[in-house]
Amino acid sequence: MFEAEGDTARLAAGMLGTSEQNVAFTGNATDALNLLGNSIQWRRGDRILITDLEFSSNVVCWLRLREQGVKVEVIKSSHGIVELEQFTSRLSSSTRLVSVSQVSYKTGTQFPYLRELSREVHRAGALFVVDATQALGRVPVSVDGVDFLVASSYKWLLGVHGLGLVYCDPALLAELKPGAAGWYSITDAFAPDRFEEFTLRRGAARFIGGMPNFPSLYVMRESLDLLTQMGVERIDTYLKPLVRKLREGIASLGLRVLTPSEEAYASGIVSFSHDASEELGQALRDQGVIVWTGDGRVRASVHLYNDEADVETLLSCLENVQKLVGSLN
Question: Is the CB of residue 32 less than 8 Å from the CB of residue 150?
Fold first, then answer.
């Protein structure tokens, strides 16, 4: 393991509360989810549970398994929320895997019961997978009870594209047959018997087939160091009032807020639906406010570089663009 990779793995492991041996890096989070799917010996009739709050990366990787006889069941949310009972009531002996984002990309809903859900999932004999892309670096993330976790290097981790962080529980590694392998995933690429056999590296590193993206690793090493020094819990606590102010302000404008109002479901994201989301997003960008649009909604994200003035600017600009995009209702 190269120095930059080792340093970054140690910082990521510290943030997750695990050993660096359980952490590795792939090209992106989507690659990691597909690697997991390719590494499981599926049985016809196996079921996978997801929700309608998932980004496509955590959908397509499972849908493609239908040709192997795997069934994908989508749990529908209500007002941005999926209750714990909606998962537990669907768990059965045929459930093989449950995959959920700790924070939804669409609504900003944070699932506050991941530990309880993991216990029920394991009681049913299934695997518990978490996509922490919209959470890690912004809200506390724990791998307690998680079998497999992925996150992208950009977004809250303050990195750039080109890297996916992977956590794999040691007990799961014994059950998996890696769906991809290369010189970087084995112990000795130049062993005398390398044309006959190979030995996989210990821990999550066996998922890395080739040379990792070092520019992205260097960036992530620095950003993880910064986030660790500041403390993710401190960041989350400091920004909670700003997120609340933003949600309440957007609601006061008559917008259809997608983010649940309950504090337990809050994260760093506030979203609202709009029939002209793309036009509204462009109008905001023209005024210097950057949001993410698409999927029939507008999403605002509040991180450590934001303050109350930023929230007030966004709310003020939303009022100003009403004439440009029509009614906000």
Answer: yes
